[in-house]
Write a structure and sequence with these properties.
Keywords: Cell membrane, Membrane, Transmembrane, Transmembrane helix. GO terms for molecular function: transmembrane transporter activity. It is found in: Cell membrane. With 450 residues, the chain is an all-alpha fold. The chain has one domain: Amino acid/polyamine transporter I. Helices cover 79% and strands 0% of the residues. Helix 6 packs across helix 14 and helix 8 runs antiparallel to helix 13. The longest helix has 46 residues.
Length: 450
Amino acid sequence: MKEKDDRSTQYDEGSLTLSGTVMLGTGVMIGAGIFALTGQMAEMTGALFPLAFLSAAIIVGFSAYSYIKISNAYPSAGGIGMYLHKAYGDRLPTAFNALLMYFSMVIAQSFLARTFGSYTMQLFGGDPSGQMTPILGVSLILAAFIVNLLGNRLIQGVAGFIGLLKIGGILIFGLVGIWLADGLAVDFDQVSETGSASNFLGATALGILAFKGFTTITNSGSEVIDPHRNVGRAIVISIAACVVIYTLVGFAVASNLSLSEIIETRDYSLAAAARPALGEYGVWFTVAIAMLATAGGILASVFAVSRMLAMLTEMKLVPHRHFGMPGSIQKHTLVYTVVLGLVLTAFFDLSRIAALGIVFYLVMDIAIHWGVLRYLLDDVKAKSWVPVTAIILDLLALSGFVWVKLNSDPFVLGVAVVTMMLIAIGEQLFLGSKKRKQVVHLSQDHEHHH
C-alpha cells in the first residue's frame, strides 16, 4: 500500500502553473521529431518539407479542439484512456484505441532512442556499420529505466531543466543557421516527382508526429491550476511555439544543405546542416542539444507511458500478469514498456519506427474525434464541424502516408495491420472472458460496500 501512497503524490492538485504546463508540453513535443523527421520529410516531399510542418500544424490545430473540449469538461490525470472511456464506455473501442495510443508512445520512445544514437555517432565520424546506433539507443532506454525506478521527483526536475536547454539550443540553431546561410534560398525547383500530392500528405503525416506530444498535457489535467481554462490554453500556446521553432529549423536546414544532402543525412540532418554554417563546433553544439533533447524525452516518456498502462490495468481494460515480479502495478508496466521499447530500438530503423507510430496515432486520433461527435457533443459543448474537419484531415494525411509506404515499404504497413488485428482480437477475447467479468463484479461489489 505504501508504494501506492508514494505514487499518488504525482497528482498534486494545482501544482502546475500555465507556464509550467506549456514547458511540459513543448518539452515533450520538441523531442526526436525535429531532429529525425526533417530529413525523412524532405525525402518524401522534396524542398516543400518546411511547408509540410505548417500543414501538419493546421491538422493538429483542428485535432487539439476535441482534446481541449474534453479536458475542459473532465480534467483528469487519466488523459487519453479516460477520454476514450467517457466516449465509448467499458467496450472494445476504448481498450483498442487506448492500446494504440500506448504503442504509439512506446514507438515514440524507440524513435527518441534511435535518434540519440544517430546524433551521438556524429561525434565519432558517423556509424558506417550501423551497429552502434541501436546499441546506444538500447543503453539510453536502460538508463531511463533505472532513473524511473529511483523516483518521480527526480524525473520531473531533470526533464524540466533539459527542456529549457533544449528549446533555447534549437532556437539558437535556427536563428544562427538562417543568419549565416546565403539567405532563405529554399530551391523549390527541386520538388520534381517527390512533390506529388500523396507525398506531401505523407510528409504532413510525419510532421504530425512532431506535434503529437501536446496530448501529454491532457494527462496533467488534475494537476494544473484552474484546469478548465489552462489545459486548453497550454495546448494552444505549445502548438503555436512549436510552429515557430519547427519553421525556423526547417528553413535553416533547407538554406544550408541541398535536397540530396538532407536526404542523405536524414537521420541526423540538423547536425549535417550545422557543419557548413557553423563548422565542427556547430556540429558538436547541435549533437549536444539532440542528446539532451532525446535523453530528456525518454525520461519523461518512459514514466508517462508506464503510468498510462497502469491506469488501463486499473480500469480492467487490459490483462495483467505479474510474472513473479515484486512491487506495484506501475513498476510492472514500467518493465513491459521498457522491454517493448528495447525490442523496437534494436530491430527497427528510424523510418519504420516513425511509420508505425503515425499509423497507430492517427487511427486513435480519429476515434477520439468520432467519440466527441457521436457521444460527447452536448456534454463537452463542442461544435460538430470541428471534429468532422479533424477526421477528414486525419484521413487525408493517413491515406497519403499509406500510399507512399505501399510503394516504398509495404512491410511496415503489414506489421501495423497485423499488430492492430492482434490487439483487437486479444482485447475482444479478454473483455468477454469469465475471469475479467469476475474481477469487474468483485470490484463493483467492493465499491458498493464502501
